[in-house]
Amino acid sequence: MKRSQAYKKPTKHYTETDVKKTWYVFDAEGKTLGRLASELAKVLRGKHRPEFTPGQDTGDGVIVLNADKIRVTGNKEATKMYYRHSWYIGGLREIPYRRMLGTHPERVLMLAVKGMVPKNHLGRKMLTRLRIFKGNQHNMQAQQPVQVAI
After folding, report:
1. For 51, which of 14, 89, 97, 124 could close a Cys bridge (C-beta 3.0–4.6 Å)?
2. Do the Cβ atoms of 65 and 28 come closer than 8 Å?
3. What CATH number corresponds to the domain at position 115?
4. How far apart are the C-alpha atoms of 71 and 28, rounded to whole Å?
5. b/e sequence 82-113, b meaning 16+ C-beta within 10 Å
6. Domains in the chain: how many in total?
7. What pLDDT, in 10s, does the model give residues 96-142?
8. What is the rounded average pLDDT for all residues in the chain?
9. How many CB atoms lie within 10 A of CB 40?
10. How far apart are CA 146 and CA 117, in angstroms?
């Protein structure tokens, strides 16, 4: 046996029961959409923890406040579009960013984070721990969330 193999330690694989999940509160006021969404996806996935395991849901819960005060850079406010299709012929609908932010600001951030998590049952499970609120009040006091400053 080689000397390097004798001293190798096996990699520890964590499961959901090994990790204690906490909740974090992020304030979206004045933050850039993509940069905030990537931070939220990282926390939801669990990549901020040393116990990160790719095939397990080791992430934490996220509460986002002031989703209506998020911003985008460049000319995206005028040109960014959201698309959906009804699966009928001619059923493609497009919604401009300004209208989506005015009517459903939570969806803007939800769709950005949804594009950054895995596209499988694990990603869908992670998105259930993402709670987004328009104003600066939330109803998640029972989870004892920790305020995070970015």
Report:
1. 14
2. yes
3. 3.90.1180.10
4. 9
5. eeeeeeeeeeeeeeebeebbeebbbbbbbebb
6. 1
7. 999 999 999 999 999 999 999 999 999 999 999 999 999 999 999 99
8. 93
9. 24
10. 22
